[in-house]
Amino acid sequence: MITRPGRLAGKVVLITGTGGGQGRSAARIFAREEAIVIGCDVDAESGRQTVDLVRAEGFEMSSSVVDLSDLAALNSWVDAAAAEHGGIDVLYNNAGRNRNGAFTDLTEDDLDFTLRNELYLTWNATRAAWQHLGARGGSVVNIASISGMIGSTVYKSAAHGTANGAIISLTRHLAGEGAELGIRVNSISPGVISSPPVQRLMSKFGDSAMFMPFVRATAFQKLGDPEDVAHAALFLASDEARYITGANLVVDCGTTVLSN
């Protein structure tokens, strides 16, 4: 029987927001590919459940309770992982929260909340890991959104779109600055993914959910799965993508390019 090492064998991977959705899927998929997965989540119970799932599948990961808006806690989590494992190879900036609504209904506090919990989390986590990544020629994968690329007459998400447009732009700038250190930086812009928040809205509003026009615009008229995003991230994090940096990989089943 021919066996091969995992695509991330021996690589130290930090993933934020591993308590559910895309983060949980990424933790499971990356662990199967033999990465050393270090996760974090603000919710202790959901983070523990992800660790239990990974271990039940015969793999290992660790998880910490971290409020990523707390710079001291964030830096401590990153530095402790680097110290324990001798460095960091991949940072997967997955965690984020936002507030949606019509532009005229959103307050300055709503905008500030969204920027702090999307753009700033990505900025601060990457800054905390930057020198560790540079020492290993590492990789950063940022989760953005197609809302950072397009507008909509129905899905009102000006704050979310602004934050994620900034994440896409930040990715390109960091790809340039990271080149001299051998750091690759890429982003992924998912369409509508069947995450816990999306599932809750589907249960409440069904086909009237505000994001359904995006779903109907996909080639197959269906929601994406968290695994669809995690597999894209796996590719970008792996050495298979060694010649890719500054890219924004769109995982939306054609929403942004197809016309009905």
TrEMBL record:
Q: Name one Pfam family in it.
A: adh_short_C2
Q: What protein name applies here? A: SDR family NAD(P)-dependent oxidoreductase
Q: Where is the signal peptide?
A: none
Which keywords accompany this UniProt record? NAD, Oxidoreductase
Q: Which family does it belong to?
A: Belongs to the short-chain dehydrogenases/reductases (SDR) family.
Superkingdom, taxonomy of origin: Bacteria
Identify the Gene3D superfamilies for this entry. Answer: NAD(P)-binding Rossmann-like Domain
For this protein, the record's InterPro entries field holds: NAD(P)-bd_dom_sf (IPR036291), SDR_DHRS6-like (IPR051122), SDR_fam (IPR002347)
Single annotated GO MF: oxidoreductase activity
Give the EC number.
Answer: 1.1.1.-
The record lists the organism as: Nocardia jiangxiensis
